[in-house]
Amino acid sequence: MEEFNIPRTPSAYDYPLLIGHLLSTLEVRQPEQHIVYAEHCRLEYRTFCDRIHRLANALVELGVTPGDTVAVMDWDSHRYLECFFAVPMIGAVLHTINIRLAPEQILYTMNHATDVVVLVHDDFLPLAATLAPQLPAVRNWIRLAEDTSVPAPEEFDLPLCGEYESLLQKESTQHAMRDFDERIRATTFYTTGTTGNPKGVYFSQRQIVLHTLAVGVALSSPADQGRLHEADVYMPITPMFHVHAWGIPYVATLLGIKQVYPGRYEPAKLLSLIDREGVTFSHCVPTILHMLLSDPLAEQIDLSRWKVIIGGSALPPALAQRALDLGIDIFGGYGMSETGPVLTLAHLTPERDGVNGAKSLETRCKAGRTIPLVDLKIVDPDFNELPADGKNAGEVAVRAPWLTQGYLTDPERSEALWKNGYLHTGDIGQLDGAGYLKITDRLKDVIKSGGEWISSLELEDIALACSGVSEAAAIGIADEKWGERPLVLVVASQEGTDSGAIIAKFSQAADEGRISGWAIPQSIEFVDSIPKTSVGKIDKKLLREHYG
């Protein structure tokens, strides 16, 4: 292949894509905009930028060098957002610890990531004190306190080097940011798998900047529906430890939007913040939205200005309709931990969908169309591309410049992830002629019965549309004759919910051609609750272990 040499002026600045550069215009464009941490703190952007520089200097003072890993154990806060920028600004790696993992899994991730400095909230001091003797690489622990006037509890034997605010106050508001290779690792976090230890997913500075720009373009492009703009008020309801809260905090900061960080997730508290701070843009998984809309306060406050992206799992039509009835502009999105994560967004097209009605609801519940720079296709088991006809289903394979290059120190699983030069998502989906993706199931969650694949998501949607059903989960259980048969677990929202009426809904769906006769469950099992993973998804692995 012929090589092309691009002429370069010796004194020209190459401008590497570094996370710190996302802050370059904030103090000029939005210096007085606010960042709010629940009831604890309210900062202007100019102060926020000063604090990022102070934190960067404090970490350098503690001996953190490029390539070192700095970990955070905190609720969603302004401090977490400061770490999103300050840690990569000095060339270090940010490890966002999943605080909902089991202690032994947290210990594994901290040792695997080789954390050298850990910022720990007071709520996690007991856990940190237990883990500290088993973390040989950790040199310093920094306390994160809501009330700095209260000393750290003495009963926890943890070698704290200081409290966050006091460390920042000692440092300069100016940090001379160095240029690094944009391909250096910027962040690491861990995703739980079906077997074995959590997997380390990592992203470079270049990848995070490109993801920020692409998501920013995609969210700001619609004329109205689902649009994010500088007059919005943003609050994540996806943990900041999970794929950088879907990367939206970087977008919101780039745009200089007012941001609200809620701390620990509690339904009434979240709804109160939406009301008090005028929140207009959020994102969460379906189970969290269901929890919010089930709280009595949801009926008492105005949610008509609230735009919400639903990801993590498919948006059930019944939940979407409930949100629309409250005036919420709800729509789906799609991605996964390994993809940074956003790949698609289900924005409406007015000429195709309008803004209300059945067609609009159907589109909102899809995964959506690809955002800029995403190359996505549906493939069969032999990696042949399937037509975008809205009927053929296959695995979603994808390429984009911000996808993880693999799993940290795990070359075998990294190669399997990138087989044939595309990242294999493990999701089954369909593409229609307009480019909208619909996820029909996870490969591991498909129910294989009598030689036919049955979508567990479709079964859950049917169950959730039944009166008296609050939550639903569908799994395959072993069957000697058919391989697997579907089992539907239901949480009832009222006494007297009839399993026969739910089965009748499935029979009706089969008569209408939505599902096959094979997909009609033989029975409905009522349960008090359905277990969730650390990021709020239905834990089907646990359900299969218990019922399968």
Low-confidence stretches: none
Helix percent band: 25-40%
Beta-strand percentage range = 15-25%
How would you characterize the largest beta sheet? Answer: 7 strands, mixed
Strands, total number: 25
CATH topology of the largest domain: Rossmann fold
Task: Characterize the structure shown.
The protein is an alpha/beta fold and 548 residues long. It folds into three domains: 19-202, Rossmann fold (3-Layer(aba) Sandwich); 266-442, ANL, N-terminal domain (Rossmann fold); 447-547, ANL, C-terminal domain (GMP Synthetase, Chain A, domain 3). The strands form six sheets. The chain has a seven-stranded mixed β-sheet, sandwiched between helices. Helix 7 (205-220) packs across helix 9 (248-255). The longest helix has 17 residues, at 45-61.
